[in-house]
Amino acid sequence: MGLTRKVMSLSTLGAVDFRSDKERTAAYTKATKKQTKKQTKLMKQQAKLAKRLAGRLGKTKTPGLAAGGVFCRSSGAR
Description:
Elements: H1 3-11, H2 21-58, H3 63-66
């Protein structure tokens, strides 16, 4: 908890850091863990949507739509 450090920080008007290195590391670790969970959740949602979209495109009868809807020539002709 570092009560002495916090009192020194307040009495010296910030010359002494309010948080110790351990507290700062713990806060950064907690924030990183939270962001990682959030990112993992978003990636799962994107994968789920991509899978659903791929299933829908696979059911279409037009081969061009299953390939992304773009028809192009493989030869270099202009």
